[in-house]
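Hi W.,

Here's what went into the run:
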Amino acid sequence: MDTESERDAQSARKRGSGVRIVYELLRDEIIDLSLPPGSPVDEVQLAERFGMSRTPIREALVRLAGEGLVENLPNRSTIVSNIDFVNLHTFFDAITLMYRVTTRLAGQYHRPADLADIRRHQARFVAAVAAEDALSMIAANRDFHAAIAVAGRNPYFTGLFLRLLDEGRRIFRLYYQSFDDRLPQEYATEHDGIIAAIAARDIDLCDRLARAHADQIVRQIQAFVARDQRQDIAL
Amino acid sequence: MDTESERDAQSARKRGSGVRIVYELLRDEIIDLSLPPGSPVDEVQLAERFGMSRTPIREALVRLAGEGLVENLPNRSTIVSNIDFVNLHTFFDAITLMYRVTTRLAGQYHRPADLADIRRHQARFVAAVAAEDALSMIAANRDFHAAIAVAGRNPYFTGLFLRLLDEGRRIFRLYYQSFDDRLPQEYATEHDGIIAAIAARDIDLCDRLARAHADQIVRQIQAFVARDQRQDIAL
DNA sequence: TGTCCGGTTTTTGTCGACAAATAAAATGCA
DNA sequence: TGCATTTTATTTGTCGACAAAAACCGGACA
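Here's what came out:
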């Protein structure tokens, strides 16, 4: 069970990079559901897996807890945070507002280099759609909107938005494991519209398109949830 | 140099409470500027001050770093985060939006117990204004709006808002050390208006009042900054 | 006098170990 | 057999110590 990065970590890692390695890998595994919600995260197990002491593992877990990706039950094992389906609407509210705000600010403050970044991620997204690769589609979509947020140059909004986008990746991932719908072509064209609005610095248009885009995504997730619930009832 | 809480921490503290104690105390000291921005935070010094090992200190620092209250220069001392006056407008944008959103949501989702909490903090605020106690005024104001955010029941917004309110406390504190203006009477009446709007569940009114309140605060800070800059030029 | 170089010191990052707290298992009792 | 209680075992929280990095200091040299 020794992957590339883990052996790197084990052999010759620089003094202080250990935490980052563990943090990023755990983060990715939580987001792509390799570590399912609610599963316990054992410190000593991770320690021997990465070939390091418990101390850096612990620090990585504290950071993840700060972002809400894991929960730290006192004197008990830390677990991967559950997805709260009951209060999913709070997530929808928050991410919709952040879509709008970040896109508006991008329209206001973006520079040429930002647009290049955004277009690059959109190209990745389109390629993923063409290849029908749901996983890299989800990742590219996240990076696309993250780039827009960065172009908006408000670290407070960017910070919250990144958290929400990652949480969204978990939820999407949950459904793209079981279903294989595809309306992502609409997403791609909507993305192009957003890019154009940002480039034209049309703030109102940015807002409208971002809101429509967010509504689209929220509706899709809600459809997934509803279908899921009907299945639960049917069984 | 042994205060009450520190001796408590030293003698008989429960297993796992050490981090919380250090975290909360450091957090308070950073917010009320006892630890000025940019000042180094020495681990071993804190360790002997609290009578505990470096490990829990370190964990507290990691948490604080996660909230942006300290910065962790690799292989070098961690320092209290500086206040970024150049990009202060991003702070204004963010906190204004959060004022509006949380107050709107409070108008929508609050329950009777929430209103009681909010009114209690407003009473504290009024008392602090009457006593002309700037410090507890600032603290009560923060708690007042925090209670409104809690009543809105969106943990994502609440989380960001609390961070912004604490950052705002640092900025306010910065100026209430040098000046002794007072227009807080206006704040108190505005607070009453906000309470009434929430109780009446008038969402639009909540939004308008919150926005006006935020603008008021932003203007006051900007006036402080401007006056400060004029002083710098004069000297 | 100013700059570069090597040693010293301070401070962090990591480690292994121990003790407390809880979960799990085993035992006793009705 | 089922439940309460004690015992064991696992896992976390904390500690002291050591080694690596960078800052600090002093001296040599141009």
